[in-house]
# Entry
Amino acid sequence: MTTTPDADIARLIISCPDQHGIVAAVSTLIAELGGNILTLDQYSTGVEGGRFFQRTVFHLPRLAARRSEVEQEVEFRLARPFSMEWQLTEAARPKRVAIFASKTDHCLLDLLWRHRRGELPMQIAVVISNHPDLEEDVRRFGIEFVHVPVDRENKAAAEAEHLRLLDGTVDFIVLARYMQVLSADFLEKIGVPIINIHHSFLPAFIGAGPYQKAKDRGVKLIGATAHYVTEDLDEGPIIEQDVIRVSHADDVAQLTRYGADVERSVLSRAVKWHCEDRVIRHGNSTIVF
Amino acid sequence: MTTTPDADIARLIISCPDQHGIVAAVSTLIAELGGNILTLDQYSTGVEGGRFFQRTVFHLPRLAARRSEVEQEVEFRLARPFSMEWQLTEAARPKRVAIFASKTDHCLLDLLWRHRRGELPMQIAVVISNHPDLEEDVRRFGIEFVHVPVDRENKAAAEAEHLRLLDGTVDFIVLARYMQVLSADFLEKIGVPIINIHHSFLPAFIGAGPYQKAKDRGVKLIGATAHYVTEDLDEGPIIEQDVIRVSHADDVAQLTRYGADVERSVLSRAVKWHCEDRVIRHGNSTIVF
Amino acid sequence: MTTTPDADIARLIISCPDQHGIVAAVSTLIAELGGNILTLDQYSTGVEGGRFFQRTVFHLPRLAARRSEVEQEVEFRLARPFSMEWQLTEAARPKRVAIFASKTDHCLLDLLWRHRRGELPMQIAVVISNHPDLEEDVRRFGIEFVHVPVDRENKAAAEAEHLRLLDGTVDFIVLARYMQVLSADFLEKIGVPIINIHHSFLPAFIGAGPYQKAKDRGVKLIGATAHYVTEDLDEGPIIEQDVIRVSHADDVAQLTRYGADVERSVLSRAVKWHCEDRVIRHGNSTIVF
Amino acid sequence: MTTTPDADIARLIISCPDQHGIVAAVSTLIAELGGNILTLDQYSTGVEGGRFFQRTVFHLPRLAARRSEVEQEVEFRLARPFSMEWQLTEAARPKRVAIFASKTDHCLLDLLWRHRRGELPMQIAVVISNHPDLEEDVRRFGIEFVHVPVDRENKAAAEAEHLRLLDGTVDFIVLARYMQVLSADFLEKIGVPIINIHHSFLPAFIGAGPYQKAKDRGVKLIGATAHYVTEDLDEGPIIEQDVIRVSHADDVAQLTRYGADVERSVLSRAVKWHCEDRVIRHGNSTIVF
# Structure
């Protein structure tokens, strides 16, 4: 499940119309370049007319120096003949992330703590919050905290400030219980994947107050869902979900406490997988290798 | 969790406005009658103005012979002073059930097999199906099978036949993947609790085709829900739920197979708990002791 | 599952030989004192010759002021006639705890964070470690940290220092991945319950290096166990256990990372239950209400 | 996770010392033969000096007719240069199995029922039991049942009868709660893999009476383990494990009932994976693709 990040480890993510010979073409190219495949996962939505996805992790001596050569080979020997979309990443270059939070700390702290432990291969550029409450907690981890207040009147200005802070400097954004809806305009301008944690087992209990809704409906399990953010609130591609058992005796406050445990573990897994290029979007679904 | 059914074991289920002294009154009455409390569970929706629920299992020598005496004492010393709703059952008199099925066998067979093993304290009066396919399987367990075809034209006649077969002879009904919607008229006339298994984690994926909907939405867990049937389809009080992990690689057929395992275990648990008087309806929720 | 701690909420924990009328006697006494039972759990190891256990949570106006009166009534009207062992605690007086740790932070930080959130009703008197590494993390929570080095030569002196620091000031001790074995002499002198987290699903993989042993044996799940410490290492009464799925592809380092998640959640649950007087020792087992 | 069995679908299982170019060599050979890779899983115990395992499922028109050609190519172009052990199977030729049982029915019936549903790609040659109790249940599925009594005196004769019944006619054996220990002599002579279900989470509670041992130790989860049988009882390579939560209130009979649910699902998964050539033994561990 894990690969030790290393200057010479590459990940090649491809997708293309399914057809014969893709695995052979990819693995032969890597072998001819002198690489050694460490793991290779693939999935096809259907042999006839389906779409093929593959994630190949390989070791290639002097990867950084040879990167443009490798990219050229992939482009000419794989991407063009197979009509591939592709992406090549280096394990030694962790993705840069901005984390958005509000007042609740559990998801944010779990990410910061796992990052400190070395479990999350990413660089945290900044934590942005619409409230100042968590500043001290964040700074203790040696991470920059920026307070950008948001209210109805200044929402556009706040998002402009977000863009100014982040533009071109982050590879993805995590909403760690950030309690503001991002505008379609912001999503378009920022142009990087955004991972959100929703405090229900989607598609159950879309929208605000899911634990109250869960209590009202009398469910016996509550859950959490990490998904990519799209313009349709709570409708984006799901990355990871989990649940926990509850009972009639648990009030909404208790559901919220139990839910916090699920939220933080689900979000941390989703972020880890995204950092490792394991998650591929396909329409409104994801393939998770 | 279990009590060996026994001629002298009683279960007293009560609900009333919460107030001081209910537990003392119940337990004192049982002690004075010569009974010994085996388990006692209680729950209050709130001390101020809340509703109180209690399930008391006790051993009382010569229970059957003394039943009307016990009922009188409960009525006069508990029910009237505390404005209680109450029910007294004997573990030695298992509930009688009719099981409705259609073509799929997994939920039905799991109930029949657990019943044969002695795990479900109930008497199966009859299995009714709108298809003849499972007749042989049912008869092998020594249980009566009645085929009552249902189509658009004859639905009222079929339900009349159901009523004729069941009227006054069963204590509850289980829909073990019965693929017909029961009419409001039938629900009213039959007048006994009906347990259904829905093949999704309600309230996600209400209605037909939940596994296809789950595939379309790209969820990472699928589930099943056992609930009491009300006039609002898939909206009745939830008794039990569970989920199983799935992946992008599972097609709808595979989701259906995984789901079958969850369905049968969830339904069997719900039926067992109902038979043991563990499930109390409260509005559109349940308390499960 | 939870009760809001409150100055007037009491918990009465009893155990005695099983016999008729115990529940009635307890609940009648509470009613006569003017108390209102909030939850009542009981368990008997067997009606004939078994032992009976009960945890009763009740609200009693002016509890603190009336405490000695209540204790006298319990002693004379319950404990003596029923040969009971009993304990009365007030929810408003949280237990005082000392946490022992070494170098790994996950269990300790989870306890400190949950305590700060208000999830653990206890007062942390001090964190003691045989290594200085976690001092800064602990102090940030406003909690005292004491470094007491331990090696083969000074073990007796170190334990004497522990006793000096803790004597009479704590109600229980938590070993949050403390990597030293406590001597039988220390256990006897300290005289309070000690909760340990063992990084395996006991009784599998007793002793040191359980994740390496798990890898060697090729298990498909790894687990963690919270238990009370006794003189027999890893043999004390189990409070809580849980597991997580692993695969052949996970190396020992990865098992250790996954295991850390299980360890922290299992230990936090066990500590919470202990604080709420939910855990009763019975021989080498526990009853968890 | 699933492949529809088909006359033209092959599975190639290989293992060899890890080195560069194995994936490329395998996938290139398949492409040159005109095959299309459907899924490919691989695992290496370590890049330097490790062992490499791969399971490749591919579609090859006219597979059955071309089988010897394919085998020759594998032998000369893969096995010899890479020092491979390998096995080629056809999805259209399900493995033949003998199931051994005793008196308890849950594991046996779950296998027979899943087989009837089409979930287990195998041919059940015979069910053999040392008791006659389950004969009727087995015959109802249209499957041969043979009663071979076993006692201390006739054990060698009974095993000789087993060998006579099975010799050369089955590809593997399943012990579905068969309560006799197979002799080392039998294991050697029968020469096919044997899957057993042990009613505990191994290595906890090795040997007889695991649910009683679990009760005595006071564990909070009980489990089951499917493993290949070796001469060392309960020590063979583990294929699959799972657990279920229990409480102090569950007696040994209840643990046994809960355990039966875990046993049947764990054994059925292990058998399915074995039938699909997903399980590769490596020393005393398994790789499960």
Summary: Chain D has a mean pLDDT of 95. Helices of chain D lie at 22-33, 63-82, 106-117, 135-139, 155-166, 184-190, 210-217, 252-275. The domain at 95-288 of chain D is CATH 3.40.50.170 (Rossmann fold).
